[in-house]
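Lay summary. Proteins are chains of building blocks that fold into shapes, and those shapes determine what they do. In this project we predict the shape from the chain. Here is one chain we studied, written as its sequence of building blocks.
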Amino acid sequence: MDKVDNHLIIVIALEHYNPLGQLRSLGENGIRPIFIAINHKVRMASASKYPQKVHLVKNEEEAFEVLIREYGDVYERTGYKPILSFSDDKTVTFYDQRYESLKDRFILFNAGENGRITKFMRKKEIVDCARRHGVPVAPYWLVKTGEIPSDIEYPVITKAFSPVEGGYKGDFHICEDEDQLKKAMDSIESDMVFLQKYIDKKTEICFEGFSYNRGKGMYVGIQTDYIYATKGYYSPLMNVNPPKDSNLLEKLNSMLEEIGFEGIWEIEFLVDKNDQLYFLEINFRNATWSYASNIVGRPLPYLWGNAMVTGETPVQKDFKPFIAMVEPIDFGLRVDKGLCSLAEWLTDFKRAKCTYYYNEADPEPWKVVVANWDKLK
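And here is the predicted shape, written in a compact code that computers can read:
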């Protein structure tokens, strides 16, 4: 029987600690991937010992040229399609738009046709989908930039209506009243803006997993929740648990089946002060937190590839809850801002079972972090 080990795995991603987790998840499970690294702030993920070869490129177009030139004939030569795995929205969109021309030579994230993943990256499309499947969503509006709905509920947040259009994170604002919303509208780059009722959060919950067989098959590796809340930002210190709510997971599975998505994903929820969950989004890519899944024997990039070539549902390995930390960001939010002492932070660092940069077995990326600490923290 075919298995993932027969296939070349190629990670195509922006240089970041997100693909670093992918490279480590694969390398720690006996797979030495190819890494096509798109230039970003520092060359950190490409410093990992696990890739068998690294191609450093300037942009998506150059990455695509390298892929086709170097690996476009692998299936013809070996009989095994290379598996492509992604870590950022722009890369997912680039290959989603070209899926039908690539599917005969590669296995890659897809929803069955060109552009379908990109469609569901749009905020209104995905929250409408969530509503159809009984997943709770906070009130929302999609309007032309500058328009203010008559039934708006303050406070409200503004978001780019797609992660690959407009200013993306630059279009995010928290507005307490109409004056603040009008001012925010003046800075938003896209023609359309997604508005949503602002929820004062207690925490956020993220599910890390993947789907296959046109979304019918779903595997959830871990569930994370943030240990402290940061307004308008995520917490880099988190609890990692086995997934708990089977009823909610069934609804998410039905969403993925409607979309037809095959790939690694992250599904995010906000939790308010009364423990009510509100759906936020699906990231149709490997997300940073997925590396914590590898720590407990649930390596998502490896298991997804194997599910795609064998159709087999992976076995769920039990694990005990633990702590994970994004070290530079947590240091910057807590120690630099005086929220905890260095000694307290070091205690948390030592008890974290998963750190997303530091890794004793793969030390070079951490050295890059230390050398660029002010830029990254």
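What the prediction tells us: The mean pLDDT is 93.
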